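[[Encoded backbone]]
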Amino acid sequence: MSETREWPQVAIVGAGAVGGYFGAMFARAGAPTVFIGRKYFADAVSSKGLILDKPGGQERIAATATVEMSAVRECRLILLCVKANHTLATAKQLAPFVRPDATVVCLQNGVDNAVQVRAAANIVAVPAVVYVAVSVPQPGRVKHLARGDLIIGTSEKADELAQLFIRAGIPCRISDNIEGELWVKLLRNCALNAISALGRVRYGQLVQSGDAKELMQHVVDEVLSVARAAGVVLPGVNDRESGMAAAMELATQMADAFSSTAQDLNRGRSTEIDALNGYIARRGAEFGIPVPVNHALFTLVKLAEGVRV
């Protein structure tokens, strides 16, 4: 349902599962939205529209899709949804086309995407924490399983951004500790993603396995040790028990979902493991903190990626 208030033009850069879902929410609310993605996605959406498959039913949304980065020229809101390992390269591609008053919101895993975007070009980049369980069963179709909410940090544009997301039907709250919120998401991803991928199981199956939960606890302990060394305060997570509870909560909410890492491996694509367990492995080495479980999970996923190349 469209609103009478004027929408800014919105661009979705990296129209995969996450970008497809949040872009679909803007498009169905009436915002002029352009999706920028791979050719097979653009072709499917241009010919048949974008199919949003939600628990309550399926909806076909008319949308504009292209492979051309220059399509962001007139857009004041740009949702960056590429995989974390493509952030820097994508930011450099974006830079020549982003208008001065545009805002890039990083809807990505990892904790330093907005920093990378700002380093690559003079672009206003806002970090966001994304909680959503989505997949792409076929080009142009996005299947939504659970959640679909955001957390953004405080800034001059925070209130305006939050209201835009809320108007599009996307719950959004503002945090005065966005770094800590990003690390809470990182902790959850580190505890769940690689184990789901390597074990080829959904989140709900992890919750039911005592051995998996023991492994998750080791991951959580290591992430918290690195966070303390980095001086990061995680909201609501102040010890190993609350850290484990945070991971278990997400696994329970998204019980039917495979992790994004699992989905990438299944499709033979590179994963974001460098920005997840790999990030903890690098920061652990930097601080002289042993993180053997995170390093092992990182290594195993990288080996699995190589098998599929």
